[in-house]
Each structure stands twice: as structure tokens, then as C-alpha cells.
């Protein structure tokens, strides 16, 4: 069917139609469209939701895939994968998403998930793959190391995952009492001074936490810590893939399945009750998140590919950049 999107989406992601058979994405007011597309959950997405209701059109929620690209989208890197969800956003814990249902039904894909996980870990991959692999400079210690992941104030993945500023405060307080060496990983926009993080420097500093200032890959950071504590960061999923203990103070898509230590608030517990009731393994979650959920395409010719081909393309691009 012909699809529509807001001007913001059509302007920000001009390649989007290539993921839908090479069609030109129309406006949301076009009389000939059979459905509408929304990206994220900010104002343009709310506009699309209203249009979907008024016109009685189906709506699909779009986001980058969990294995996206070598470079950042802000830098113009076209993704190797996106997700198209007919139910909701994968970060939204207040209602089921298609990803949540795929994880719930992932009984028969354990071996596939294991193969995907092993390749991602072996090649030290993550959602973005542009940062160097080198050990961050950290004060030596004999204590266990806990990585606390800060997030940008206003990040939709915090509120949608049923977290809040209080979630970060509780995480920091628990870490302070743990007796571990606590490291804080700030968002790059916070480090650059463009945005504010939840874990303020003065507060965390008084708690004895150490801020990581090295711009290195996710794999490099995870290789030097023992545990990861997060509110809702996707880096927690990277840690799970590497067999690390992960504690969650809100409900990202990978929490609530028995593979994380969940420190949910009352509202998150009530919202997830009866939904994420099955125990799932990391490999089952990986199969749903990397195989069944995303759509992969090669931006060179827009042919559809699978996750293993996407991994090869990312590695080839990394090798090419290393030679240049």
C-alpha cells in the first residue's frame, strides 16, 4: 500500500521509502494512502497518531534497529536495519509492542539467537560501531566494578520505560552502598556540554563515583567492568549479550524476562504484570531482537539482507575506514 508520513520524517529520513519497496512516502494528508508511519514518540509522532485516529488509518511505529550502522544517524550514516512495529515502540513499557510479543513467543530460536549473539560479541559490535576499541583509563582497584549508565534528561526511553529522575537517584544511592568501585558512563551529548544528564557531576562526585571520559566503544568499556546498572539504556542489552549481570531500575525491552535483576517501581510492576510472565534466555531475546523484529537492507542497492549479512557489511565498512 502507499504510505504517508509527516514532513519532518520525510525530510529527516529521505531514504525511508527504500525500506518499503522503493516507494515515495506521501504526506499524511494524501487521500490515496493506506497507512501512516511515525518515527520515535516526539511531537511529529503525536501528530501522526492524531491523523491515524481521525482518518481511521493503520499506523506503524519506526525506529533504528539494534544493529544499526558504523556511524551515527546524526552524522548521516544510513542504517542497515530499522524496526517497523504495528503495536507500539519497543521502548514503551506501558503497553505491549510487537517485540515484546516476539520475545514471549521465542521458544524455538535459542540456537539461532546463540549464533547471532556469539558473532556480535566476537566482533565487538553494538548498535553503533564507529568508536575505537581501546581500554578506558580507570583508576586501578581490587573492588568489583559497577558501571552506572547515565542518560540524557528528557530521553523518551526513560519515561517510556516507566523510569524517572528518582530511578537514577535510587540507582546511585544503591551503588554508593554497594562497596564497589562505581563508574559512570555519560551520554556523549552530556560530555560535550550540549545536554544535561540525570547523574549530575556534583551529586555523583560526592557519592564517590568516577566519570569515564574516554570516547571508546561499548565493547571496550564492558570488558573492564563486572556489572552494569541502568535505568533503561540499550547498553544493558549489550552487557547481557556478553554474559554480564545487569540491574535495571526501569523496564527496557530486555527486562522482566528473568535475565536481569529488576528494581522496578510500583507502576512498572503493575504495568508489566501478566505480560512478561515467561522466563526467557538472553539467546531467545537476541533472536527476537536481531532476527525476527528488524528489517535489514544494504544501502548500496537496497536489497533485503539478514542479520549475518548486515554484520559482514559492518565489518567490511570498518576495514575500509581503517585503511583510509
Distance from first to last alpha carbon: 42 Å
Percent range for helical residues? 25-40%
- SSE string, helices as H and strands as E: EHEEHEEHHEHHEHHEHEHEEHHEEH
State the secondary-structure class: alpha/beta
Strand content: 15-25%
* Biggest sheet details: 7 strands, mixed
Spatial arrangement of strands, main beta sheet: 2-1-3-4-5-12-13
**Number of E-type strands:** 13
Q: Average the pLDDT over all residues and give the rounded result.
A: 93
Spans with pLDDT under 50 lasting ≥5 residues? none
**Shape type:** globular
Put simply, the count of helices is: 13
What is the gyration radius calculated from CA atoms? 20 Å
Pfam family, one: Capsule_synth
InterPro entries: Capsule_polysaccharide_synth (IPR007833)
Protein name: Capsular biosynthesis protein
Amino acid at each position: 500500500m502507499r504510505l504517508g508520513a509527516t514532513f519532518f520524517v520525510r525530510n529527516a529520513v529521505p531514504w525511508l521509502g527504500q525500506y518499503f519497496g522503493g516507494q515515495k512516502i506521501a504526506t499524511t494528508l494524501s487521500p490515496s494512502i493506506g497507512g501512516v508511519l511515525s518515527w520515535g514518540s516526539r511531537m511529529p509522532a503525536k501528530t501522526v497518531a492524531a491523523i491515524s485516529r481521525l482518518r481511521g488509518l493503520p499506523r506503524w511505529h519506526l525506529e533504528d534497529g539494534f544493529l544499526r550502522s558504523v556511524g551515527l544517524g546524526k552524522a548521516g550514516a544510513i542504517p542497515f536495519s530499522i524496526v517497523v512495529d504495528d503495536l507500539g515502540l519497543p521502548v514503551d513499557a506501558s503497553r505491549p509492542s510487537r517485540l515484546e510479543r516476539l520475545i514471549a513467543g521465542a521458544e524455538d530460536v535459542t540456537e539461532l539467537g546463540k549464533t547471532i549473539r556469539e558473532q556480535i560479541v566476537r566482533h565487538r559490535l553494538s548498535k553503533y560501531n564507529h568508536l575505537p576499541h581501546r581500554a578506558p583509563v580507570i583508576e586501578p582497584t581490587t573492588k568489583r566494578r559497577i558501571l552506572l549508565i547515565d542518560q540524557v534528561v528528557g530521553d523518551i526511553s526513560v519515561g517510556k520505560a516507566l523510569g524517572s529522575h528518582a530511578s537514577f537517584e535510587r540507582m546511585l544511592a544503591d551503588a554508593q552502598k554497594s562497596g564497589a568501585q562505581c563508574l559512570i558512563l555519560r551520554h556523549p551529548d552530556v560530555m560535550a556540554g550540549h545536554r544535561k544528564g540525570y547523574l549530575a557531576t556534583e551529586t555523583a562526585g560526592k557519592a564517590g563515583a568516577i566519570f569515564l571520559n574516554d570516547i571508546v566503544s561499548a565493547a571496550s568499556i564492558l570488558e573492564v567492568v563486572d556489572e552494569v546498572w541502568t535505568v533503561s539504556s540499550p547498553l544493558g542489552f549489550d552487557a547481557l549479550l556478553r554474559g554480564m549481570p545487569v540491574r535495571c531500575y526501569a523496564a527496557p525491552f530486555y527486562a522482566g524476562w528473568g535475565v536481569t535483576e529488576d528494581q522496578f517501581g510500583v507502576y512498572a510492576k503493575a504495568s508489566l504484570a501478566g505480560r512478561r510472565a515467561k522466563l526467557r534466555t538472553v539467546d531467545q531475546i537476541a533472536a527476537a531482537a536481531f532476527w525476527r523484529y528488524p528489517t535489514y537492507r544494504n544501502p548500496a542497492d537496497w536489497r533485503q539482507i539478514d542479520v549475518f549479512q548486515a554484520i559482514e557489511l559492518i565489518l567490511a565498512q570498518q576495514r575500509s575506514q581503517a585503511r583510509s
